[in-house]
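Supplementary Note 3. Input sequence used for the single-chain structure prediction.
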Amino acid sequence: MAIEIRERYRDVVRDRWPVSVDPQPDELLSSWLHRLALANGIAPRSFASALGLGEGMWSPRLDLQLPGEAAALLADRTNVRQETISAMAMTEPALTPLLLPLRENVHRNRSSWMQYCPLCLASDEAPYFRRRWRLASRISCSAHGCGLRDRCPACRTAIVSFDQVELVPQHFCARCGFDLRAAPKAGVNAAARRLERAIADICRVESATDSAATIDVVSRVLRAPVVADIGLGGTLTNLSTAARIRCFNQLAAKRLDWLVTHEDAAVAHRRRIILAAGGHDELIARFADFLGKHQTRPRSMCPPQPCAGLADVLTAYLRVAGDRTTSKRHRRLRVPQP
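The predicted structure, written as discrete structure tokens, is reproduced below.
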């Protein structure tokens, strides 16, 4: 006989909850909350009352706006730091417009709020949903190269783990019980994946600069369906994952002026350099981290300082790498003198 603690969980367990769950890399807050609820013997729908919240899309709402008192309560009831909990939410203002809207019931070509990679869920020791899957600009899995999905392939409903009323892991559809790990693999061509990586890199660098260029590039990405002329209209966030994959396939065959052009020649050049870099994650991440650490104040408050742009950094790197290669070749070819 299964025993489940439900609505009165907050009254029964007033101090620290019996089981704490460690967040996984890039885990979304709502995903962690669902796993935390299950570990403590309560279904996600009922767990909302333990946080003093109503029903509906309670956990996805916390993804977008996590009140300080809720973060403090979660930290107090678990052994996870409040800063770690807050970091799982999607509260970065620069990329907020690219977040998929909170929709539970959607039509065929309309977006739902969450995407997933079946192969990632299958390889996880404890399946969880990633933060990057919430972005409309993401269409594929960087680890497995397959397209993302935003629906249960069996009943075609959106992912509604927050509405689960049974003690069932979140990788099972809350409507029909289908195991999402068994979803068929969706295809995405290589050119579309390269474009996706380039958009992610440009957005990462632009958001680190805290400039108007961030707003510009995000608005361009949102208008991608119009550029692709896929016949569905609207912005990127309004399309289902399948429709966005078609959109990126179309865009990959076009010139990328719609993405890289800018009235500031330096910004346009920087975007072209990032495109040419071909998705070098480590290099882009280091550059974005550098900008984030050294541009903590608005540009208008900082005295103008001579600095190298990304184009200069990449050019210098290639020059040094080329000089080293030439030097090694000359040493190998040098003939010893008698």
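The two ends are 91 Å apart (CA to CA). The chain is about 45% helix and 0% strand.
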